[in-house]
Amino acid sequence: MHNNKTLVVTPSNVNGLITRLLKQDARLMNLSVRGEITNLKISSAGHCFFSLSDGVSKLSAAVWRNNFERLKITLEDGLGVICRGSISTYESAGTYNLVCSDIEIEGEGEQSKALDELVKKLKAEGVFDRKRPLPEFPKTIAVVTSPTGAVVHDIEKTLGNRFPCVKMLVIPAVVQGESAPDSIAYGIEYAQKTDADVIIFGRGGGASEDLSAFNTEKVARAVFASRIPTISAVGHDIDITIADLAADRTAATPTAAAVAAVPDKEELHRKLDMVRAALSDRMNAKITRMRGELDTVKARADELLTRCYKTKENELCNSAQSIKRLMERKLEIYTAELEKNRELISALNPLSTLKRGYSIVRLGEKTITGADGLSVGDNVEIRFGNGSAAAVIKEIRK
User: Fold this and answer.
1) Is 231:172 a contact under the CB 8 Å cutoff?
2) Residues 28-66, buried b or exposed e (16+ Cβ, 10 A)?
3) Which of 53, 98, 115, 217 is the most buried (most CB within 10 A)?
4) Structure pTM?
């Protein structure tokens, strides 16, 4: 204490008092500060330090590593930004700075809001709902992109390695700048007139601001109007564009889009080998099963045939016996009839008559039945039952 009663304090006391006063003001705990980045430095520990300048004053700022790694933008000197955070003091040095939790490029807040409104509008219309399957074996791939970038080369190389028989049709388009939305939309519309089975559109990456063409309503509606399935290959993992949401499929890179568009010939060969092996196994199993069934049927057929043979054999034996008995009966009847006829014939046989004492007179070949048939002097043959005699007619009596 001095004699004039003035309170004497240490720098630590002063810095501590200032810290407490700053913490009592809620406005300083949640600030949004606009300015231009100067004196940007990144420490070996991964923390970021810089100054925010408005042309009149400067405010020290810091972004600790955990927040710095999550930033979606690249910081650089001269970049106009809006930093959100709180005022913090460093008591030992008697300094204070703005500790940032988030940073966006100045003007992006309004752009982000407009983008959100566009997303809501298109979503309500169902522009993001349609997700068609890609053809399994496309014949032609249309690529809407800049013809001078690496995108064409990467896609062409990937298609050639995976599915060489597919045709690639390059439709040139401006992918950055004011004319990019019209150019991309025209390229997608032009592809509808070709024989393309799939459309890949996009670019080979870039900063967030370079992707603005793919966040436009014109491109989104062109994608939605496409009758051909689409793959968005903007090549930016951090941000999702409106075109990504409208496309049937989204790929992180043009190479990934080409991979999604066509099958892998090596994988197809492996699948064909597996299918061939599976078919062979199934065929062999079926043949084995059918052979077993055939053997069973054959055994059954043999059994039935043997049984039928025995049945028919018995029937044949019975029939033979019946026929034999019938023939014997017929033979008896025919024998009796034959005997009867023989007796009848025997009775009618002239020789039988002759044996009873009668005779037959024949003149040459002519049988004489009366005396009128003879003349005196005719040489005749007289047949008896037990022989014949020659005679000459001496006298005819009537």
Assistant:
1) no
2) beeeebebbbeeeeeeeeeebebbbeeeeeebebbbeee
3) 98
4) 0.52
